[in-house]
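Fold this sequence, please.
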Amino acid sequence: MARRSTPSAQPSYLPHPLNAPRRTLNDPNESSFSRFLNNEIWAPEKLPGNINILTGVTLFLGGIAAVRTWGELMIPA
């Protein structure tokens, strides 16, 4: 398949930060839940994907709410 953009074009997605400092200190008083949040949810290298998942779930739930609220308006009279 042929490339359709110029060679100098930037990617259309958010690239992962290459030189982002990682938090490597483990606090012994930190709970496993907060460690999970820090390593999997708020980690800079995983944040773009988590935002995409959150956007998709929000759009899905918003669509369900819209159909349940205004669904009868979609039926032809």
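Residues 51-77 form one domain. Residues 47-70 form the longest helix (24 residues).
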